[in-house]
Amino acid sequence: MELIQQVPEISAYLAADEAIDHGHPLVRETAAYLRSATGDAYAYAAAAFDFVRDGIAHSADSGDTRVTWRASDVLAARNGICHAKSHALAALLRAEGIPAALCYQRLADDDGNPGPVHGLIALRLPGRDRWDRQDPRGNRPGVDARFSLDEERLAWSVRPKFNEVDYPHLYAAPHPLVLRSLRAAADRTRLRRTLPVAL
């Protein structure tokens, strides 16, 4: 699949915004900690991915009802759904000068019923002329996402028979429909009812 930058300028994928607040002290502190234990940008990106995937609980798995969406809040709460975890990973990458984009999948359950749009990221490491998608959702039985630059190791591969879709667009900021749902939800139960099922 060819990934398409929503914004042509790569600098847009390094910018801070309300959700990807990589200038926040907690984001900077976490990035500095991860950087101190790694060498180059590749090792740092892998460490940041593992930190978010494994160190921040996916609230659907943990049962946490809190809704986080700003990267610094995700890091503070150590909790979030896929979108929130993607915001945190994008912020950690951008904090160290690695372009990071938000991207999405339309998924369904095993009966073909549409579920909420799934969020993940893409990054562009130095010396590579392409974007690589990564899914920091968090593993559980049946889900084995891994950091990989050779082949995608996402939480889910789309199933065309259920009309699932990999959206090719790389967003510099969270999709407005997703961000509106995250910001408005009082708890995760309400969030599940308001997240878009398609973009």
Automatic annotation (TrEMBL):
<dbReference type="InterPro" id="IPR002931">
    <property type="entry name" value="Transglutaminase-like"/>
</dbReference>
<protein>
    <submittedName>
        <fullName>Transglutaminase family protein</fullName>
    </submittedName>
</protein>
<dbReference type="InterPro" id="IPR038765">
    <property type="entry name" value="Papain-like_cys_pep_sf"/>
</dbReference>
<feature type="domain" description="Transglutaminase-like">
    <location>
        <begin position="30"/>
        <end position="119"/>
    </location>
</feature>
<dbReference type="Pfam" id="PF01841">
    <property type="entry name" value="Transglut_core"/>
</dbReference>
